[in-house]
Here is the input.
Amino acid sequence: MRIGHGYDVHKLAAGRRCVIGGVDIPHETGLVGHSDADVLTHAVMDALLGALALGDIGRHFPDTDELFKGADSLALLRHVAAMVDGQGWRLCNLDATVLAQAPRLAPHIAQMRENLAAAIGCAVAQVSVKATTEEGLGFTGKREGVAAHCVCLLEEK
Here is the structure.
């Protein structure tokens, strides 16, 4: 078995889409990044890559490559899932937490779980997504950005 941990953070700014877990969330601010800046999906990819000691998403999808400008992070996750499969592993489960004062994420969590599971090719029951505020503390609490953590467990096929 292999365990992986992923972490990602993106700044919030006006004029950007707010895509988290593949869900386009209506909000006055969105996440800034080279791709669609899907902070949750990025943390999930980093956890999967980390479990296999394959580096991080910056190594595989660098923000210096125009090919990934505005990229759909769920498409990138499908690529990472194929890498996991190709290395002879499968997901047991993953557990992710999004840290955001805003936007409110609870109404979107079921869809995020479905999107991530579909991209990975696993059952929704293997994907846990939670959201929390930081009670007004730090950059997430001040609505300057959103962060996400993810841990995963892989087993050999």
User: Anything to note?
Assistant: The longest helix spans residues 73-86.
